[in-house]
Amino acid sequence: MEDSTRTPLSRRRLMGLVAGGLAGAAVGGVGIFSQLQPGSAEPTAVAATSAESAAASAAQAGPSPVPSPTVGVQTGEDTWYAWQWVNLTTGATHGSANAAKQTTNTESMIKAWIGADYVAAVEAKGESLSAADEALITKMIKNSDDGAAQTLYLRRGGDRVIQRAIDECGLSGTSVTEGWWSKTQITALDATRMLREILTRAENSPLTAWIVDDLMRDVADDNAFGIAEVLAELDPQADPAVKNGWTAHGTTGLWNVNCLAEWTSTGSGDRIALAILTRYPVDLGQAYGEKLCRDVTRQLLDQLTPAL
User: Fold this and answer.
1) Is 207 exposed, middle or buried (CB count within 10 Å of its CB: 0-12, 13-18, 19+)?
2) Which tens digit of pLDDT belongs to each residue from 221-251?
3) Residues 228/240, Cβ–Cβ less than 8 Å
């Protein structure tokens, strides 16, 4: 969706999140990346006098950490991408070397927050969501309608909506772009933090749960690209909550295509959040970015959810 004007553009229980270390190695396009799994406790030193004592030591140390994934997606020239994977059940995190450092436009990913922020105000006043507002939020999430997003954004104070996201979601690498919700600058790590906050609110907020479970898990087919496509193939019971973003910018000559999703892995029962952000020359087209998101997703699923 091309942004043509300045202002109008474009259930589950959570466990704690543990921040992970990152290490980078260049791979194709703009180099991204091998990752380090968060360190687990070192095994207690026990003399291995027998097979039984060795087994006891291993039991004390707990399960072995999942090996860090290596993403080696081949990309075209001048392609940038970043990704962050969070296991919301175990707390394990993995990310590209630039996941916490480099930013790009949120595009329509931020609409998930605009909706969550709007209904929070409604619930705080003890009011019910009007039929008109329900229709606006539905259009914004399911169909990624920019006009609906702009209306809700302005009603809640414009840029103050984005500042609340930074403050309330703990977004350490995100900044406001004045008057442009879609050009909010965000890292892949912060995209997962934003999604996690929305999911946390959904535990106790009926209206936020409605956004996540009724709308984000049922977006229009042309909105459900990237992560959702791979899950439909490899884990069709995953039931992902999706809010992607995509815009071709004539002024910069760049496509921004982002994928954001949460799902429950059929193999392990773990809840996963994944953000993949991309930016590349506009002449490569939207399909290129969608494929890049699919390729990253597939490699991560192959390495981190082998039971599928």
Assistant:
1) buried
2) 999 999 999 999 999 999 999 999 999 999 9
3) yes
